[in-house]
Amino acid sequence: MKLVGSLTSPYVRKIRVIVAERDISHHFLEESAWTAETTVPRYNPLNKVPALQLDDGTSLYDSAVIAEYLDALSGGTLVPANPLDRARVKCLEALGDGIADAGITAFLERKREASRQDAAWIARQMSKVDAGIAALAGAVGRGPYLGGDRLNLGDIACACALLWIEFRMPEVGWRASHANLRTWAEALESRASFQATKPKA
């Protein structure tokens, strides 16, 4: 199978962590959706990454879809089978993806010419980032992972989002404001899957 994406996207990193954790054989095609010559639409008509092309040519897209497929393919322990536990983990994944969504929206707005930037829009997105981080801090319990004593999809999605925020918006400073998130994130960062997928400045 072929995974298409950029090395800095938090959604792509989520999938790269999963394939590293599960040692899933794949080819990684580094590709940006923002260049004129991008090939991403060949794999996702929405021109978004990640996309996963299966060996039969079928393309899967949206990181939540790809993550659930890869989890089921490789043993199904990242998303619990119990309906309520499953819903909780999927909510955590949505929280992580939502933090990333809002952060990226603000980041892209800030890249526009200063005279064209919408300060109120940026503030609205950053309020979502702050609220999401606070909610995540509240979700971190006494165990090493969000769901207890086993790594789950919520851990991966939320960690990838927070680490992207730190990479692109270091001024947010979530490690300093939430000691429990720092401890939780540091444990995840020590895993080989996170070390191997850390974006370079």
CATH topology of the largest domain: Glutathione S-transferase Yfyf (Class Pi), Chain A, domain 2
Q: What is the number of helical segments per DSSP (H or I, 4+ residues)?
A: 8
Percent of residues in helices: 40-55%
CATH architecture classification name of the largest domain: Up-down Bundle
Percent of sequence in beta strands = 5-15%
Number of strands: 4
How many domains, in number, for the residues?
2
**How would the global form be characterised?**
globular
- Give the ordered list of helices and strands: EHEEEHHHHHHH
User: What gap, in angstroms, lies between the N and C termini?
Assistant: 28 Å
CATH class of the largest domain: Mainly Alpha
Q: What is the radius of gyration?
A: 17 Å
Strand-pairing-aware structural class: alpha+beta
What strand line-up does the widest sheet have? 2-1-3-4
> Can you tell me the residue ranges where pLDDT is under 50 for at least 5 consecutive residues?
none
Q: Main sheet, how many strands, which sense, barrel?
A: 4 strands, mixed
> What's the average pLDDT?
96
Describe the protein:
- This protein is of the alpha+beta class.
- It folds into two domains: 72 residues, Glutaredoxin; 112 residues, Glutathione S-transferase Yfyf (Class Pi), Chain A, domain 2, CATH 1.20.1050.10.
- Helix content is 54%, strand content 7%.
- The protein is built from eight helices and four strands.
- It has a four-stranded mixed beta sheet, covered by helices on one side.
- α1 links the parallel β1 and β2.
- α1 runs parallel beside α2 and α1 crosses α5.
- The longest helix has 28 residues.
- The two termini are 28 Å apart.
- The mean pLDDT is 96.
